[in-house]
């Protein structure tokens, strides 16, 4: 089982107003759960404009510490931009998988928001009809559909996805050449022609380094 989890917040600095999850079991999306949460700070107008969750809606709701227990119980938690949700939530007893990081690895050159990937990859998903994008449960359904696509496209199981994420991190710098030790992203900004030359002429580049270079170039084009 992999549990896809998502949070909505008072702003980029935190303060959870909603948490939700769905489970992915044998390629199926099951067991939806969601809770509105009483935050520890006011909801910013900018955040409210995105998720449409108001102070009235969260008044009298449980705190995240009171609600989070029922979301425990999975060996793996999956989120889109997992570093954000992992930072927002209390300690979760499981390993984390990031669908954004894996999508960057598998499909360089795309836009990587949930909705952009849903459109680009033509994901088949039916979120709850009474919700909209940027509500936690709605976004869980989209992320779960993306996870299923990642697994079917790559053939990776959960341990392999974690391993690939770890390996990907080792290719943030050049392991050889005149820019050895420098960050791939920095070289893409200062000398994109060098990266393009390498991609065209060096046929035995490691796939992870090739993907990192393609991602870096797409970000500056």
Tell me the number of strands: 5
Question: What letter string, H or E per element, gives the SSE order?
Answer: EEEHHHEHEHHHHHHH
Give the N-terminus to C-terminus distance in angstroms.
Answer: 39 Å
Main beta sheet, described?
Answer: 5 strands, mixed
Main sheet strand line-up = 3-2-1-4-5
Query: Which stretches of 5+ consecutive residues score pLDDT under 50?
Result: none
Instruction: Kindly provide the radius of gyration, computed on alpha-carbon positions and rounded to a whole number of angstroms.
Output: 19 Å
Helix fraction by DSSP (H/I, runs of at least 4): 40-55%
The SS-based structural class is alpha/beta
Strand content is 15-25%
**Number of DSSP helical runs:** 11
Silhouette: globular
Mean pLDDT: 91
Description of the molecule:
With 221 residues, this protein is α/β, with parallel strands linked by helices. The protein is 45% helix and 16% strand. The protein is built from 11 helices and 5 strands; from the N terminus they run βββαααβαβααααααα. It has a 5-stranded mixed beta sheet, with helices on both faces. Helix 5 (99-106) runs parallel beside helix 7, helix 6 packs across helix 7 and helix 9 (184-190) crosses helix 11 (207-220). The chain is globular and about 60 Å long.
């Amino acid at each position: 089982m992999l549990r896809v989890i998502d949070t909505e917040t008072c702003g980029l600095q935190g303060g959870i107003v909603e948490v939700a999850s769905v489970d992915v079991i044998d390629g199926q999306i099951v067991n939806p759960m969601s809770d509105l949460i009483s935050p520890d700070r006011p909801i910013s107008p900018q955040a409210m404009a995105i998720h449409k969750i108001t102070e009235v809606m969260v008044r009298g709701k449980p705190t995240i510490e009171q609600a989070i227990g029922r979301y425990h119980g999975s060996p793996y938690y999956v989120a889109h931009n997992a570093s954000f949700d992992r930072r927002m939530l209390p300690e979760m007893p499981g390993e984390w998988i990031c669908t954004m990081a894996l999508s960057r690895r598998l499909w360089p050159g795309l836009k990587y928001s949930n909705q952009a990937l849903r459109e680009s990859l033509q994901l088949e998903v039916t979120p709850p009809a009474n919700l909209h994008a940027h509500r936690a449960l709605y976004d869980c359904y989209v992320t779960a559909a993306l996870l299923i696509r990642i697994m079917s496209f790559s053939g990776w199981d959960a341990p392999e996805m974690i391993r690939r994420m770890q390996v990907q991190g080792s290719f943030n710098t050049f392991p050889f050449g005149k820019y050895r030790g420098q960050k791939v992203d920095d070289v893409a900004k200062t000398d994109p022609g060098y990266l393009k030359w390498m991609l065209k002429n060096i046929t035995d580049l490691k796939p992870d380094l090739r993907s990192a270079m393609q991602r870096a170039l797409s970000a500056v084009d």
